[in-house]
Write a structure and sequence with these properties.
Oligomer: single chain
Helix content: 25-40%
Shape: globular
CATH class of the largest domain: Alpha Beta
Structural class: alpha/beta
CATH superfamily of the largest domain: ANL, N-terminal domain
Number of domains: 3
Distance between the termini: 42 Å
CATH architecture of the largest domain: 3-Layer(aba) Sandwich
Largest sheet: 9 strands, mixed
Strand content: 15-25%
CATH topology of the largest domain: Rossmann fold
Amino acid sequence: MPITEILSRNAKLYGSELCLTEINMDLQERHNVTWMEYELIENNPAGEYRRDMTWQVFDEKANRLANLLLKRGVKKGDKVAILLMNCLEWLPIYFGILKTGALAVPLNYRYTAEEIKYCLDLSDTTALIFGPEFIGRIEAIYDQIPNIRILLFAGENRPSFAESYDRITANCSSEAPQIRLSDEDDAAVYFSSGTTGFPKAILHTHGSLMSACHTEKEHHGQRREDNFLCIPPLYHTGAKMHWFGSLLSASKAVLLRGVRPEWILKTVSEEKITIVWLLVPWAQDILDAIERGDVRLEDYQLSQWRLMHIGAQPVPPSLIHRWKKYFPNHLYDTNYGLSESIGPGCVHLGIENIHKVGAIGIPGYNWETKIVNGNGQLVDQGQVGELAVKGPGVMKCYYNDPEATAAVIKDQWLFTGDMARMDENGFIYLVDRKKDVIISGGENIYPVQIEDFLREHDAVKDAAVIGLLDERVGEIAAAIIELKPGYNCSEEEINTFCAALPRYKRPRKVIFDQVPRNPTGKIEKPRLREKYGAKSLVAAQIEG
């Protein structure tokens, strides 16, 4: 069943019920009023701060866009890109594209103009819908993207080179277009994080999207009464695929624009949120704010909050132990996935396995896993090898790149590039990215292990470990350490703390600096390597 039929079902059965709410917390604070008071300000409707949408309106907006695109000549197999910040329009636009049989092409909102052009060209995109934050970037490449036949602007103060999405879709039919779709049809092109240069285009089918719906709902048991708080960017597979559990269960979701701890807790409290998916830095910020006294949990209504889960990056066990101290009744899950495996849950810890915090978990619903050596053979239990996954959410291919596809998909298995090991109970532990392994004096050093250890230090907010070239041993481990606000720490203190590590794992150099992370929370190690004139030997071989 194509995922668009789930939306149509929800509109038919629950049409008058709210399904999505967008909250712009920054706008509310600038006006310094309560949510209810804001709705009463003359000539300043609540829609500017808080906007709601029912299932029926959601479906109708998707249908209107679909009918417009079809009228403009968009056909099955064409590509339509989305370049928007999280907003109430995002998901109806995504589903409107799918309803035409075209492929949705979400773009990272941090892309430069050059990267936007690259991705549009790589994916053979012919239509683009963008928001006000991107006017300057699109204007800079407007005369360099002749293949874009349709350019729609979603927002106020439309630039002269684009058409108004709101105005022209308002006059289109709200009836569902009669386009036949199947699970085998191509549905979307996503882009890799681009940690080794420009990103790759990842092609997924309607079957992949539906598999994400079922995996998410199976893992986290969404019910009609749940309300999911979505903070991460919708262009990424993680956030949207977790929301797919809400779609399948016909439950509510809130799109929060802003990540400050008090904003998250206020939204959970006032919107009666039950499920929150966080990235590691945001969970860390919430805990730090609690311990500094910047927020008081007793000021919020949080008893209905039943599940917090984290994904997109390795999760330090110390973080979850701290979390359970303040939120002892929360269910918890770790989700492991890649854009190539449609995001959440090809491996997950499972809410019943919190005693195994530190592991990424066991194979997800409808997924298989294996850990292999460089020859593709299974490694012994406890040994480190490359993690491979197999399931209904594996990408079809890297679009227009058969060589790159063949390098990672072998006999339907997706080779993730992540190094892992399995314990005696079948739980998988992520050791590190293959390209981030540091080889020092013939020993393999896995930075994640050192990073987790460093984050146990009271003064350390975040840590990243990279390899610096060394004439004698090949590479040494360098630790970039970001301190918590108000804390001081010396290199000598860090070295003393690291004395508990095996000698070969101890950082040989300590650098105090900020740890850069991308919008999905992953450490941007290529930026650190470039900044410090370093590149690991393994990374040099893979990236070059």
